[in-house]
Amino acid sequence: MADTKTAAESNEAYAIVEASGTQVWVQPNRYYDLDRLQADVDATIKLENVLLVKDAKGTTLGQPYVKDATVELKVMSHRRGPKVIVYKMRPKKKTRSKNGHRQELTRVMVQSISVGGKAIG
């Protein structure tokens, strides 16, 4: 068997959090694009809806949330996602509509993942 490790098998800490109505896999010192959050640039946000935490000791699964677990995020910028074209056409009816959509996003940097007040990553 080869010595290739996936992110789940490596010793790096990670967490799965609930943010903006979606579940996001986060690791410390990485940035992620979430749906628009109501926060200023350079503000710090604490997410307490942590579903799973993995560190060197093992994996902690919440029911539904991990107790005393928080993920600290720093807002880097507010941006817009790529343009998506929505085109609807009904054949033989001469009905056409073309729309564009750009999702409002917030880019955040994960500063720390902590359980019980102790940072794990």
Task: Kindly describe this structure.
This protein has 121 residues and is an all-beta fold. The chain has a domain at 14-78 and 107-113. Helix content is 0%, strand content 56%. It is built from no helices and 11 strands. The chain has strands spanning 14-19, 22-26, 31-35, 44-47, 50-54, 59-61, 69-80, 84-90, 95-101, 104-115, 118-119. Strands 3, 4, 7, 10 and 11 form a 5-stranded antiparallel β-sheet that branches. The chain is elongated and about 65 Å long. The mean pLDDT is 89.
- Number-wise, the strands total 11
Which descriptor suits the 3D outline? elongated
Q: How can the largest sheet be summarized?
A: 5 strands, antiparallel
The number of helices is 0
Distance between termini? 29 Å
Chain-averaged pLDDT: 89
Strand content: over 45%
Say what oligomer this is.
single chain
- Unreliable runs: none
Q: Give the structural class.
A: mainly beta
Q: How do the SSEs run, as a string of H and E? A: EEEEEEEEEEE
Rg, rounded, reads: 19 Å
Helix content: under 10%
